[in-house]
Task: inverse folding
């Protein structure tokens, strides 16, 4: 049915001074970025480093010491910024010094550049719910969904049946509860959510695991002005970084790249990451648009007949109370004990009869596919299998 297709983008690096990197320079920048995030063979400078941020500092400082040419030093600044924004957008930390250099994360086999061929990401839910290709198909469980309810308390201990109490006062009992919150919600609310409190080892995992945020700013234009299959990485010069400070637009340094939407030829998506995400989410639409105009003028107006966007959408995952961030990562706090905290987080809560009453799923509970959708899906199957095995015994 051609549900999936390979996504092919021609990625080019655009500099704030109007230059476009040639292929050799592009490879140099990519190799530098990849080296600081190599969890198997970190750079020799980073053998004692604990975090990606520390590794980046060490490698950058060593390069600075080895050269005197001002232009070469400027290039190191630019490579360092690209490496920082790339690593931040992959793993979502607000600070790379909290992102562990060595990780148990595994790359999923297969083609990592598949997309939904215009169907949209909701397709995966329709497939899982057996509502594809007809999303209007009714299922026996449709009347069991209770949406737009905020959970106040989950009661679980010394009870045969746990219960969920919602903010509007409803109580829902069940034999088992599979709970799939974001790690951000657990970090902020676990003391209020669970009655009684969670056991100490689970709280320890929640506190020490990393959870960050990225942001997308989505721009719709009257007409497409960029080449087909074009994607852009941006590189700020030291001089232009100073200009951003003067314009109070330093948050634009968080932009890691711009890609076209797969199913709308008039849409570009900007990816933002790093320490400015909480600030960007609080900006007014007018200020965000001012920043987008600055980006378009600085990087693209010298190369294309650029128009201004006529519509804008942006995410707010960091401040959204249902998420409080995007996805988990391994923090430096996790590494000293060599403990896989995802495995602690996944362990079910048992009642006095040794019955699993609260089961945990979600990307942060996968031991090596954390931060991914496929990891989250696997954990749902894992907990369903756990209940099947319980009743078999």
Result:
């Amino acid at each position: 049915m051609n549900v999936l297709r390979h996504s092919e983008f021609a990625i080019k690096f655009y500099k704030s001074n109007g230059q476009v990197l040639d292929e050799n320079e592009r490879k140099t920048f990519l190799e530098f970025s990849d080296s600081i995030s190599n969890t198997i063979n970190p750079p020799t400078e980073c053998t004692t480093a604990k975090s990606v941020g520390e590794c980046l500092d060490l490698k950058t400082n060593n390069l600075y010491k080895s050269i005197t040419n001002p232009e070469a030093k400027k290039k190191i600044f630019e490579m360092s910024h690209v490496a920082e924004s790339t690593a931040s957008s992959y793993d979502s930390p607000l600070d790379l010094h909290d992102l562990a250099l060595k990780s148990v994360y595994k790359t999923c086999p297969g083609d990592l550049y598949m997309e939904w061929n215009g169907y949209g990401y909701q397709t995966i839910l329709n497939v899982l719910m057996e509502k594809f290709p007809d999303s209007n198909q009714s299922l026996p469980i449709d009347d069991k969904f209770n949406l737009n309810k905020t959970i106040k308390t989950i009661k679980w201990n010394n009870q045969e049946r746990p219960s969920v109490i919602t903010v509007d006062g409803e109580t829902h009992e069940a034999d088992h509860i599979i709970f799939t919150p974001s790690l951000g919600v657990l970090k902020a609310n676990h003391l209020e959510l669970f009655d009684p409190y969670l056991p100490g080892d689970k709280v320890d995992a929640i506190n020490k695991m990393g959870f960050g945020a990225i942001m997308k700013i989505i721009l719709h234009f009257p007409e497409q002005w960029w080449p087909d299959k074009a994607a852009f990485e941006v590189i700020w010069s030291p001089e232009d970084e100073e200009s951003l400070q003067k314009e109070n637009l330093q948050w634009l340094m968080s932009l890691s790249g711009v890609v076209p939407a797969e199913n709308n030829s008039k849409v570009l998506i900007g990816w933002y990451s790093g320490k400015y995400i909480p600030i960007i989410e609080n900006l007014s639409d007018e200020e965000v648009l001012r920043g987008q105009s600055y980006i378009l003028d600085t990087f693209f107006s010298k190369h294309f007949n650029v128009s201004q966007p006529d519509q804008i959408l942006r995410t707010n995952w960091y401040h959204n109370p249902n998420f409080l961030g995007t996805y988990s990562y391994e923090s430096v706090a996790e590494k000293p004990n060599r403990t896989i905290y995802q495995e602690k987080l996944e362990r079910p809560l048992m009642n006095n009869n040794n019955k699993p009453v609260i089961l945990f799923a979600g990307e942060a509970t996968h031991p090596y596919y954390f931060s991914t959708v496929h990891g989250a899906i696997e954990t749902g199957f894992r907990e369903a299998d756990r209940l099947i095995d319980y009743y078999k015994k």
Notes: Residues 70-91 form the longest helix (22 residues). Residues 146-211+324-392 form a domain with the FAD/NAD(P)-binding domain fold (CATH 3.50.50.60). The CA atoms of residues 99 and 331 lie 5 Å apart. The radius of gyration is 23 Å.
